[in-house]
Amino acid sequence: MVDMHRLDLPARKPRKATVYEAWERFVRGEDDVHGVRPEVALSWHRCRDQYGVDPSLTEAPVATADVDHALEHDVVFAELGFRAASVVDEVSNIGGVVTVADASGRVLAEWGDKATRSFAAKANLAPWYCWSECATGTNGMGTALETTSPVVIRGAEHWCQAFHDWTCAGVAVRDVVTKEPVAVLNISCWRSELPKAAGAWLSNAASRTQFMLRRRARDAGAELVAAYNHARSRSGASVAALDPAGRVVIADDKASVLLGVPSATPAPDPAVRWNPRLPELIKAARYAAKQASHNPAWVGSTQVFTHLADDPTPISFRPVFLSGHLVGNLVSFGLSEGEQLPRSDSGGGSRGPGHAPRIVATRENRMVLLRPPEVSFAESEGNDVWLSTDQGRLRAATPALDKLERELGGSGFLRVHRQYVVNLDRVREVERGFKGELALVMDGQANAMVPVSRRNAPAVRRELGI
């Protein structure tokens, strides 16, 4: 879900010469980003090192014709189109254009000043062209889709030099359950500044659309609870209801113990659902949701390790729909029905060499690119994630511990506490408390100690072989 704080356009703009000089250095392969805002520097890193976008690109590519999106997202596109049309006269008066794009960065519609639209057409800032970061580099629409906050991109902050005459601001609307982007609204100006009112326009349009999605998500949660009650009345198996993101909406007594969540407590509102802290289960639930969205008759099963269990537990997934829209799955424990889900390479065997992802951290005006072995553990602190590394304590570029945990899947990291993810290869000692609680002593001069929560203790014992 997008951060609905008002999009305030920074009063102090970075000096154009400073940003352009940093852009030149970064394009040459250097990592010095002095004078560049952190969100822009991280976008440059993605464009150069992850996506390989050519900075000499002069126009956006044609969007993929066959873009898969859920039918209910059409409602979001229509709502954003209505919001955009309501301010088109004001945007036109300041020489701007407003665009709506889908989650792939494909522009669906454009309105605004006729002269500016003619300049935009030369760069393919027009319907049916793609403005995702992976296609067109740092820009208002693409960068907003990559982050959880509204963004402003000015001049040389754009990755492609041909777009340095533009200033744009974008805000993405995200699914309140899966947190995946649904659409993005953007305002662009050519060789001029955005008006101060632009932030209010964007935030208001996004917040109203987000409210509609929250209401639909609560209705979906209520439908899941109803389906759970119906299944409980017809079957003797232990049952839980999970939303498409793998969070628990309701679980019976036995399932609640296995999942480590409260028993028989419905949570139709997505803001109060429970994360079972079982990566294998969450991954399986997301796979099941994807399969069921394409085939409503799909049923599948797999085996996962659960809390307080030394052996894997068979589970089956059965999708639940509301007005043709997938709202989640009923999970039955002890049953194996339907298609067998592909087995993941998680667990102890996941710590082989492979092609491990880079972990991006920040230190003052520089990005620090870390290999997983250089990181001992990650700790959430308020809205930030901090990394304990061989180079000291660094702020992670990834804004949430849950997201970092997903990014490091298969790299030998394990969630051991709601505030900690540890590199299992950096654990040197395991300390047992008086009541059997565990703490991990990490390597390094500080011998940092990381607590293990009771619900995560079985997984830690299993992975460390203790």
Provide a descriptive summary of the structure in words.
The structure is a single chain. The protein is α+β, with helices and mostly antiparallel strands and 466 residues long. It has 12 helices and 21 strands. It has helices spanning 16-27, 38-51, 73-86, 88-93, 114-122, 133-136, 140-146, 197-234, 253-259, 279-294, 401-407, 457-464; strands at 96-102, 107-112, 151-154, 166-174, 181-190, 238-242, 248-251, 300-304, 313-322, 325-333, 339-340, 359-363, 366-370, 375-381, 384-389, 392-396, 413-417, 420-423, 427-432, 438-442, 449-452. The strands form 4 sheets. The chain has a 7-stranded antiparallel beta sheet with strand order 13-12-16-15-14-18-17. Strands 7-6-10-9-8-11 form a 6-stranded mixed beta sheet, sandwiched between helices. It has a 5-stranded antiparallel beta sheet with strand order 2-1-5-4-3, sandwiched between helices. The chain is globular. The two termini are 39 Å apart.
Topology diagram in text:
Elements: H1 16-27, H2 38-51, H3 73-86, H4 88-93, E1 96-102, E2 107-112, H5 114-122, H6 133-136, H7 140-146, E3 151-154, E4 166-174, E5 181-190, H8 197-234, E6 238-242, E7 248-251, H9 253-259, H10 279-294, E8 300-304, E9 313-322, E10 325-333, E11 339-340, E12 359-363, E13 366-370, E14 375-381, E15 384-389, E16 392-396, H11 401-407, E17 413-417, E18 420-423, E19 427-432, E20 438-442, E21 449-452, H12 457-464
Parallel strand pairs: 8-11
Antiparallel strand pairs: 1-2, 1-5, 3-4, 4-5, 6-7, 6-10, 8-9, 9-10, 12-13, 12-16, 14-15, 14-18, 15-16, 17-18, 19-20, 20-21
